Amino acid sequence: MSNPIFQASVPVFKQMLGGLSDVLAKAEAHASARNIDANALLQARLFPDMFALTKQVQVACDFAKGVCARLAGVEVPSAEDSEQSFAELQARIQKTLAFIEGLDATKFVDAAARDIVTRPGTPKERHFTGQDYLLHYGLPQFFFHVTTAYALLRHNGVEVGKKDYMGAY
Question: Is the residue at 169 inside a domain?
């Protein structure tokens, strides 16, 4: 039996996190080959009020694991946001991938109708069905941060293209 919510979430997050991992590897190699301080890329921003690359990767991972956990009805794992190197960002991506790959598809059976509450108990509290949460909130947020990470690196001269962004599919 096909599970549309599972298929529209876990495999998509896996693909794009794989692409993000590959883009970060190219960025690290780029910095090393050109004797660029890695922090110049890790702290790069498109505009002063936007998150730096490191935070873009952290937030992308947070959305991938958070969306999948909520849809599966399991606790969202926490992370410290302490990464300061490409290796640490890669480890965060791998930890996120391990978590979402470990979610059984059967946990997503009723996910489309599941009530998802974001920021519970605050003035910003919002209620979604699982389907609306995934399609209209979770995926757009995730793609924004993955795309911004890619754009930061491309803007800073890392030779990446659409194929790198897309990952393996």
Answer: no
